[in-house]
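in:
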């Protein structure tokens, strides 16, 4: 049978899902105000419900926000989030501005997105659903990381040959970029810059991979495994030049198997339009594509 389907375009490679970004923060009240009231996301009601950590649901992905005094972690780049309606987010962000006065919080509406700083200076870019983000109406489509000049091709080779990822090198924001597929309509973009970057402070991005042993063995041969967590998880930090072993970039990946108990765990996503004054029975849950 002769078909016209492009099967390559539907192949994710070995990384099948970008599950969460982990950023340590000094305190929870500002985080609740920012992520839940401002961004209209949902605190996970089942796990990490105490005062030392919180998980914030956004579609099929999360933000993990453990408490660490006094210094917050700041990602060297930008976290992209797809939200159903930018106008509603703009209005809700405006309602929290006064309460977060004195923090790093700010936001600016652009033509097709909202650029936001969290109370501790992490950068977010909010988008409405579009073909660029597949079927996502609420979720985590990308993380952009600021990589050194001349590193994108070598970073691409690392993810290709070691992690078995689908990789594209191109231009993004006018600069060379290695784009790593991390799930359906999900990517990590390593964008070259000559701007000085702060030292790596330990934040991490969690991914699920199908071939769990292959990349592990390749990294272990080079002594790059940073943590042996359990039978379902290991971690690494250093992304290296495969020819010279020079460290190109540091970002911890929490790497999980698809046999992990949390893989494809259903996440609660609320309908933020609900309130006690205009309550509609049966519409507590976000019903869009995640």
């Amino acid at each position: 049978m002769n078909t016209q389907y492009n099967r390559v375009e539907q192949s994710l490679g070995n990384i099948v899902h970008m599950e969460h970004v982990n950023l340590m923060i000094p305190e929870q009240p500002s985080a609740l105000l920012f992520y839940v009231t401002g961004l209209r996301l949902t605190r996970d009601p089942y796990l990490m419900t105490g005062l030392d950590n919180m998980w914030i649901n956004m579609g099929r992905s999360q933000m993990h926000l453990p408490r660490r005094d006094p210094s917050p972690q700041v990602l060297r780049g930008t976290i992209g989030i797809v939200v159903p309606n930018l106008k509603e987010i703009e209005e809700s962000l405006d309602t929290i501005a006064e309460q977060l006065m004195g923090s790093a919080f700010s936001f600016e509406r652009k033509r097709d997105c909202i650029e936001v700083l969290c109370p501790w200076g992490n950068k977010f870019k909010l988008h409405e659903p579009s073909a660029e983000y597949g079927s996502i109406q609420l979720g985590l489509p990308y993380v952009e990381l600021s990589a050194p000049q001349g590193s994108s091709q070598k970073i691409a080779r690392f993810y290709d040959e070691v992690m078995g990822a689908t990789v594209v090198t191109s231009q993004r924001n006018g600069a060379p970029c290695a784009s790593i597929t991390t799930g359906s309509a999900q990517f990590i973009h390593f964008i070259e810059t000559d701007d000085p970057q702060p030292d790596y402070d330990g934040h991490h991005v969690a991914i699920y991979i199908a071939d769990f042993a292959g990349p592990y063995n390749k990294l272990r041969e080079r002594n790059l495994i940073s943590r042996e967590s359990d039978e379902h998880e290991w971690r690494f930090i250093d992304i290296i030049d495969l020819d010279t072993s020079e460290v190109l970039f540091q970002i911890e990946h929490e790497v999980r198997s698809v046999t992990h108990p949390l893989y494809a765990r259903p996440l609660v996503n609320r309908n933020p339009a609900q309130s006690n004054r205009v309550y509609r029975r049966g519409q507590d849950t976000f019903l869009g594509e995640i």
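note: The two ends are 33 Å apart (CA to CA).
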